[in-house]
Design goal:
mainly alpha; DNA polymerase, domain 1; hpI Integrase, Chain A; two-stranded antiparallel ribbon; 15 helices
Length: 348
């Protein structure tokens, strides 16, 4: 295998995906999967462009021109969004930063990547969120006379109140909850980061009843708050189970409220909570902390979405003949089998 300095591309990929990200950075499996996909697609693209075996792909082939061609390929052929394109670029930059920190000869490759700009979207992203009427209609579809119905209702209430990600909800343990005059829940977010969010009084009332039904004394404080029982054994509730019951309640609620969107998914609750906080006057910096965003730029999408919502409302209320109408548009891995190489280096 060709080498660049004293380090091979695939040995660096292996250490990055198998050691650095999970053990040193302690990133979540989902985040690591995103990095893995970006790097796998990249080496496959270079292999095809250069008409060489996968194991012959080297650092020095990662020129600015090659990376730009790769990013264009993601957009043009794989139909990826601009956001996905930029995420792939960020993943490659992070990997090359890691590699150059460990081998100074790779600095030249990292510097090549500085020539590749982040692409601005043609139009700002508009997120989806639910009105309070839609949320109320969905929650009302639960049958609290049954244990499952009560669990599902409380799950939705807590997910909305905390603005938690799906995995954060699944990971909540009893020890993460503090019931007092200022009740809070500790959420375990991306990259091993934790944050404490306040719980509203009505949410605490639902929580106390839920604990009585699902975690009677004595209980283990390390138990998951939400669980299912399979063959007599408690297991953390699964993401697929949550997605399924949210979808089912959403479909049932649509017959009672036209504001319920066609696809009710877990992240929609997080978006809805953030949007409602913004509309009620909470500062974006506080919303950013509430949601656990690493960069406030991520949070600004709610400000744009609210502005776009108002613009559409104005447009709908303005007759086409109105003169104002037209103004509203705004060396360790020397192998030849490619599948084996990917598995050894962590790309599979």
């Amino acid at each position: 295998m060709n080498k660049f300095g004293n380090s091979t591309l695939f040995s660096a990929i292996h250490d990055y995906l198998k050691i650095y990200l999970p053990k040193q950075r302690k990133l979540s499996p989902n985040t690591i999967r995103s990095y893995r996909e970006a790097l796998e697609l990249l080496v496959d693209f270079v292999k095809k462009q250069r008409s060489i075996p996968l194991q012959d792909v080297t650092f020095e082939m990662l020129t600015a021109e090659m990376i730009l061609a790769y990013l264009d390929y993601l957009e043009d052929e794989r139909r990826c969004s601009v956001a996905t394109r930029n995420n792939r670029l960020a993943a490659i930059r992070a990997f090359l930063q890691y590699a150059s920190d460990r081998d100074v000869t790779i600095v030249v490759v990292r510097n090549e990547l500085k020539k590749v700009p982040v692409k601005k979207p043609d139009k700002a992203e508009v997120i989806g969120y639910m009105s309070m009427a839609a949320i109320t209609a969905i929650v009302a579809r639960t049958d609290v006379a049954t244990l499952k119905g009560f669990r599902d209702r409380f799950f939705m209430i807590l997910m909305y109140d905390t603005g938690a990600r799906l995995q954060e909800m699944i990971d909540i343990k009893l020890c993460d909850l503090r019931i007092s005059k200022t009740s809070t829940a500790t959420l375990h977010g991306k990259g091993g980061k934790t944050r404490s969010v306040p719980l509203m009084e009505k949410t605490v009332q639902h929580l106390q009843k839920y604990l009585t039904l699902f975690h009677p004394e004595p209980y283990n404080r390390n138990d998951n708050l939400f669980y299912t029982i399979i063959r007599g054994q408690k297991s953390p509730i699964s993401a697929s189970c949550i997605r399924l019951f949210l979808k089912q309640y959403g479909e049932a609620a649509r017959g009672y409220c036209l504001e319920v969107p066609e696809n009710v998914h877990p992240h929609l609750w997080r978006h809805s909570r953030a949007m409602h906080l913004y509309q009620q006057g909470m500062d974006l910096s506080l919303i950013s902390e509430w949601l656990g965003h690493a960069n406030i730029e991520t949070t600004k999408v709610y400000a744009h979405a609210d502005t776009e919502h108002k613009r559409k409302a104005i447009a709908a209320a303005t007759q086409p003949g109105n003169p104002l109408y037209e103004k509203l548009n705004a060396a360790r891995f020397t192998v030849t089998d490619e599948d084996t190489l990917k598995r050894l280096t962590g790309l599979r």
